[in-house]
Amino acid sequence: MAMKDREIEKLIKAEEVRQKKSINLIASENYVSKDVLTALGSVLTNKYAEGYPGRRYYKGNAIVDEVENLCVERAFKLFKLDPKDWHVNTQALSGSPANLSVYLGLLEKGDKVMGMSLDHGGHLTHGHKVSITGKFWTQVPYGVSKVTEMLDYEEIRAIAKREQPKMIIAGYTAYPRVVDWKKMREIADEVNAYLMVDMSHVAGLVAGLAYPAPFPYADIVTTTTHKTLRGPRGALIFTRKDSRELDKKIDKAVFPGLQGGPHMNQTAAIAVALKEALSADFKKYAKQTIKNAQVLAKELMALGWRVVSNGTDSHLILVDVASQGLDGKDASDKLENAGIIVNKNGIPFDTRPPVNPSGIRLGTAGETTRGKEEKDMVLLAKKIDKALRA
Ligand code: DSN
Asked: Helix (H, G, I), strand (E, B), or coil: what is residue 156?
């Protein structure tokens, strides 16, 4: 529908063309359905709904209560959770506020949080010093093995025992491999720490039964909804229900601790995406996303590119471009010039600075939504190789 604001309309259309024309390998992006966009652009954006269903501060919330309840119900159904054992908060506006709400709800200022360091694949909100999570709390960093570039659970255990963190965070933004959630739980138990899993990157793969679910082992699971889960920007916080009342503490941290009114158009759009992810087609999608990443990684390696950890178990691949004399910035610029969109990324034990690191991160979630299959990945690897060597 035509807009009265022609300037913004023109920019939206230009972005639509840019998205259609380029090959998108940003590992944290995806393409939502028309229904998700309709929910986001709906009149639900007009409503203030501070509080939770049945307990709002403003009147007129009967309908948005139904929206939020439906979102909660679908989240339980998708991840096969029993509402007797789990609670879900749908209001955190995105991944960073979701993670911050967990810190705010469960930790005292200064407490130790054990999170993966950024260059090994962690997220800023896992306690990095430039994030509020690293300013108000103390990060105990851990990383991957120098030899395998995969998690070394014995080393993680040793760090946890030495540092006695209050919370351990598992789940990463640039770690391509499967995580042994059970082992992380055992380590957390040994030091009496909470186990928080940030499954933002792999949530859609978990939903599609293509990647192990963290729920049997975690106390808290946070996720964004817009990566492999293919929903709008947003987040969910799942909390195990027991006598510790973590669920109540985290709800209070989200509102009124950190946020005001939830974005009900966003909640509705998340509900739509969760229903879509319940379909048989989505299960195929999740499996295809991983197959595509595995073929792309294999082909790139065959063309001489060093792939961190020698492959992937997920949608995500880290390529060490420095091993071929490039840097992350050059590599991502060259690819953009060839119509392929990626991000520069640190690699484990990176000797280059974060603004111009040694790697690039590739992900197959978006292109798989667009119908790409293994044969397309073979051609894509050749295209990437040609652009990088140009
Ligand atoms: N920016 C997200 C990602 O790309 O992984 C994490 O916040």
From this structure: helix
Residues 144-181: tens digit of each pLDDT: 999 999 999 999 999 999 999 999 999 999 999 999 99
Say which CATH number the domain at 114 has. 3.40.640.10
Q: Indicate if ligand 1 lies below 6 Å from the C-beta of 28.
A: yes
pTM, full prediction: 0.97
Strand order in the sheet with 194-198: 86-89, 235-240, 220-224, 194-198, 167-170, 112-116, 138-142
Q: Are residues 48 and 76 in the same domain?
A: yes
Tokens of 62: 């009967």
Residue nearest to atom 1 of ligand 1 (CA): 28
What is the atom index within ligand 1 of the atom nearest the CA of 27?
A: 4
Closest CA to 154 of 173, 162, 196: 162
Is the beta carbon of 173 within 6 A of some atom in ligand 1?
Answer: yes
Is the CB of 95 within 6 Å of ligand 1?
yes
Q: Which two tokens stand for residue 268?
A: 């509705």
Residue 73 lies in a domain: yes
Q: Which of 48, 152, 287, 306 is catalytic?
A: 48
Structural domain range at position 103: 41-277
What total of structural domains would you count in the chain? 2
- Asked if residue 328 and residue 258 are part of one domain, the reply reads no
